[in-house]
Specification:
about 350 residues; alpha/beta; 6-stranded antiparallel β-sheet; 6-stranded parallel β-sheet; about 30% helix; globular
Length: about 350
């Protein structure tokens, strides 16, 4: 059978993606489950992170968010049986590519998939929903009555944050990166309190947020990247908020959850955070599968996510599934950040 793998280039910016023949061991591990994959989500591959945690291979498996049907279970598997529909995220050190027809995975990385939930839908949205859940519940500890600012709310991650926060009674503000995204966000149901356009410099973030919060600032800010310098190097970074802006919109005791891997805070930035008694938390989307310290909690989160998707509480933007023979091109597009997500249907 065939799977998708990454062959790292001269630098992390030049990986090559290839489809290779692979095979599974004849014997299944005692806690492993053999799954026939129905759909697999493709996300950018962080080669630097893999190297830092000691995972280095000539060919790195690609595609980790999977949905499928159980074919066979190991002797000590207690959660699943053949013909169960399951969904999960392969761990960082998994030898299997999620684009293989059949994969072996430990039962503790899987949860049952509700029957009416589409395999393509859940494979495409599971990682973003997990990140949103981690940011809001694990890091920011949201509760009804909090005020939340989500940067780039029309992105798949931003949309999950908005829907999850609205479900819990949180007052949500968000930013839009284009007129089309602005219209989309204004028509969301449940609705956000304010959509702030940042694509034409028509609004300054701080005055609008202070006006909407009575001058108090927001309890939580969730970004999808920030600018560390005032200078704008590209059209993409032009839409990102400056770190000072995000600190300035925080209220007393506020939480800033950032996805920026190399955030640098200067003494004036720290002083602002100190005056507000505010905190900064880093959102590492791989942390759950990189460590088994909170495996039970992780499975509870995955189960809650798929149940909310099935109930229509979380409604991800549909991704058009591509066939396996287009997976290489699709992954190259995702890796270059030209597209945030892709889903392959097997």
């Amino acid at each position: 059978m065939k799977g998708l793998y990454c062959r790292a280039g001269v630098s992390d910016a030049e990986p090559r993606f290839v489809i290779q023949e692979t095979s599974l061991p004849e014997e299944l591990g005692s806690h492993q489950v053999r799954v026939q994959v129905k759909a697999c989500g493709l996300s950018p591959l962080d080669l630097k992170l893999l190297g830092e945690v000691g995972i280095q291979r000539d060919l790195m498996p690609v595609g980790r968010e999977v949905a499928g049907v159980v074919l066979q279970v190991g002797q000590k598997v207690s959660f699943f049986q053949p013909e169960d529909e399951v969904v999960g995220i392969l761990p960082l050190d998994s030898p299997c590519s999620g684009l293989c027809d059949v994969i072996d995975i430990d039962e503790h990385y899987l949860v049952q998939k509700p029957e009416k939930l589409s395999s393509v839908c859940v494979a495409g949205a599971l990682r973003d929903a997990l990140c949103a859940y981690t940011a809001l519940h694990t890091h920011a500890r949201i509760s009804a009555g909090h005020t939340l600012l989500v940067m780039d709310g029309a992105s798949s991650f931003g949309l999950m944050c908005i829907q999850l926060a609205c479900y819990h009674g949180v007052k949500v503000l968000t930013t839009s990166h284009s007129p089309e995204k602005h219209t989309f966000l204004e028509q969301l149901r449940p609705s956000v309190v304010k959509v702030i356009p940042v694509y034409d410099n028509s609004s300054d973030l701080l005055p609008v947020v202070l006006e909407e919060t009575g001058g108090l600032g927001v309890d939580i800010v969730i970004d999808s990247g920030v600018r560390l310098q005032e200078e704008v190097s590209s059209e993409e970074t032009k839409l990102l908020p400056h770190k000072h802006d995000l600190i300035s919109v925080l209220g007393v005791g506020g939480h800033w959850v950032t996805s920026h891997k190399d955030l640098q805070l200067d003494p004036p930035d720290c002083r602002l955070l100190y005056l507000r008694s505010a905190s900064v938390t880093f959102l590492n989307q791989e942390v759950w599968t990189a460590s088994s310290a909170q495996q039970g909690r992780y499975l509870h989160i995955l189960k809650d996510i798929v149940e909310k998707m099935s109930a229509g509480i979380l409604r991800p933007q549909p991704e058009e599934a591509v066939p396996l023979y287009e997976a290489t091109v699709a992954m190259e597009t995702v890796q270059r950040q030209q597209k945030k997500k892709a889903v392959v249907k097997l």
